[in-house]
């Protein structure tokens, strides 16, 4: 009887070895939850510091914590520079348009619409003057009766800060050969130089920013087959250059 009771007691013993891996699983799950919780916890101090930085950037606007938005993106230095360059270019183009208005007003007041024209181009403000109001045929000296026009133009070319200004002479394709000039190149260059000399007599103009050149008959704007076309080609051009180019490059140093 005693042996029988002992065998029954042994049969009632339950194997508890499975508790060890179960406890390990619970430990791992607890560690996982702790890691996930720590990753989801926001560093309040760092977030507040970030909010202050953004507030300063936007000149005292609403803080990041006061008006959170998932669409707000930080502005990079490159984006800021590109915006500044674009703004400077637009402002300079507006300034050139204002200069054009002043020149157009002078043209209208003096009834010079047939001799003058203005146009905004990629290279700047182009003022075109027909040669018949400035020069005798085949000569490069400005007519005394029209010298005042050159002096008035000089007043319109006073800028602060100064701008680069290029004076260019052009002729038609009729060959010239005289004691004074052996080619249309020479004639066109001397016309631009003589016109420039009158401009820089204005004491408020800085000659460092002015230059002269000539293309002869090689930059026509009309056909040389007609008298009207040749008259259009005989001209002096005043190019007022921008201070800021389209790519943001500054163009404010003397040529």
In short:
With 255 residues, the chain is an alpha+beta fold. It is built from 7 helices and 5 strands; from the N terminus they run H-H-H-H-E-E-H-E-H-E-H-E. A 5-stranded mixed β-sheet has the order 1-2-5-3-4.
Folded structure, characterized:
There is one protein chain. By secondary structure, the protein is an alpha+beta fold. Helix content is 44%, strand content 12%. The chain contains seven helices and five strands. It has a five-stranded mixed β-sheet with strand order 1-2-5-3-4. A hairpin with a 2-residue loop joins β1 (116-121) and β2 (124-130). The longest helix is centred in the middle third of the chain and has 33 residues, at 77-109. The relative contact order is 0.11.
Number of strands: 5
| Largest sheet: spatial strand order | 1-2-5-3-4
Shape: rod-shaped
Q: How much helical structure, as a percent, in the residues?
A: 40-55%
Q: What series of H and E elements makes up the topology?
A: HHHHEEHEHEHE
Query: Strand content of the residues, in percent?
Result: 5-15%
